[in-house]
Amino acid sequence: MGVRSEELYRRACRVLPGGVNSPVRAFGSVGGTPFFVERGEGCRIYDVDGNSYIDYVCSWGPLILGHAHPEVISFVSEVAKKGTSFGIPCELEVLLAEAVVEAVPSVEMVRFVNSGTEATMSAIRLARGYTGRDKVVKFEGCYHGHVDYLLVKAGSGVLTFGIPGTPGVPEEFAQHTLLVKFNDIASVEALFEKYSDQIACVIVEPVMGNAGVIPPEKGFLEGLREITSNYGALLIFDEVITGFRVSYGGAQERFCVMPDITCLGKILGGGFPVGAYGGRKEVMEKVAPTGPVYQAGTLSGNPVAMAAGLKTLEILKRDNPYGELEEKASYLAREAKKLFASKGIPVTINSVASMSCIFFTEGPVRTYDDALKSDTGLYAKFFWAMLKNGVYFAPSQFEAAFVSVAHSTSDIDFTLEAMEKALKEI
Ligand code: PMP
């Protein structure tokens, strides 16, 4: 790393655990130390040592329009000048809620929170309150934020670190969490036969995005819909990554399967801390103050954050970039596949719309266990070689690469040239 990044990292480690505020940022799974970013513009980020990189992390998904989109920044600045937080209703909350209801097919009402974690935690509380049941079904390798009882075989940082759960969570807290395998509908059916009237909900990332990228197989999401309906349990889609990403209406629109509750985050906040959960009116009205399920937030519906989300959604709706995004991502995947093949390095590239992942394994990768077969050591070498050549992929094998509106075809060609050089080096 550059001199200034190293110096900042040393200082950071004195005052922040591991020098960071979220574990994956410490680069632990690729070795070495992180760079410190100075600014971002479009698809590029610039570090404090003057290096620039094409960014495929995009703040872990929110920046579908790229960094510092002029229209978003201008609107946010205008709103911020009028005050940054009130804790009283403001018009922007209504406008963003209306935009979400219009965009996401199964959502009639929505409650804003401040992160994806809050969204999933609150959605599950609601599902439990609504059904009067306790058990929650989750999938191995799916990550739903750092909710105590969901940190059981979760993906993302937890997966990279190989921690089956985490210290600090009493066993009793996880006793109502039931684990099943993604893309294995029979395992879900078996669980429901055993615990039929105790299961409040199934929570799933409709496209797995925290164990690399793993698409749902035909019939899987439909199967979840059918089983949950048959047993009177709720189906929760965690669309924190897929919402406004795999199509404007999210995975539910792309795959035509409607959940009871949808969790949103990332793109919804346009780079600000926003999450949300929403669903049918009859379910959402169980939330306080209309209903008995308590959930609150000092900064929820914050005007500046709402403004960033609102402008982001407005642009997505106006420009409808989804076809173009998918074309660019599949061009990258297709050409990368050829490069790896020519070097005799076995990889599997999974992609859904503008999210993709290069797994360093022969494949296919259709389950969490398949993802775990990846050669993470080789991924680490690839990561550093790409960084050296000016391209920033996620500092972990088990994350998605995101193409944004700001990535041009020539940026992707630059990436492919960097890849060609990188593959010679690893
Ligand atoms: N759900 C999914 C699918 C996620 O990918 C994430 C974060 N990567 C979360 C929930 C948690 O969101 P946050 O980090 O904003 O709490």
Summarize the structure.
The longest helix is centred in the C-terminal third of the chain and has 22 residues, at 322-343. The chain contains 15 helices and 14 strands. The chain is of the alpha/beta class and 426 residues long.
Could you walk me through the main structural features you see in this protein, from its secondary elements to its overall organization?
By secondary structure, the chain is of the alpha/beta class. The chain folds into two domains: 3-64 and 321-425, Aspartate Aminotransferase, domain 1 (Alpha-Beta Complex), CATH 3.90.1150.10; 70-319, 3-Layer(aba) Sandwich (Aspartate Aminotransferase, domain 2). Helix content is 39%, strand content 14%. It has 15 helices and 14 strands. A seven-stranded mixed β-sheet has the order 4-10-9-8-7-5-6, with helices on both faces. β7 (199-204), α8 and β8 form a beta-alpha-beta unit. α2 runs antiparallel to α11 (303-319). It is globular, with a radius of gyration of 21 Å. The two termini are 18 Å apart. The mean pLDDT is 96.
How does CATH name the architecture of the largest domain? Answer: 3-Layer(aba) Sandwich
Task: Tell me the number of structural domains.
Answer: 2
Helix/strand-derived category reads alpha/beta
CATH superfamily of the largest domain: Type I PLP-dependent aspartate aminotransferase-like (Major domain)
Question: How do the strands line up in the largest sheet?
Answer: 4-10-9-8-7-5-6
Largest sheet: 7 strands, mixed
**Helix coverage percent:** 25-40%
Number of distinct beta strands:
14
Q: pLDDT below 50 for ≥5 consecutive residues: which ranges?
A: none
Mean pLDDT: 96
Shape category: globular
**Beta fraction of the residues?**
5-15%
- What is the count of helical runs? 15
Radius of gyration, whole Å: 21 Å
Sketch the topology as an H/E string, one letter per element: HEEEHHEHEHHEHEHEHEEHHHEEHHEEH
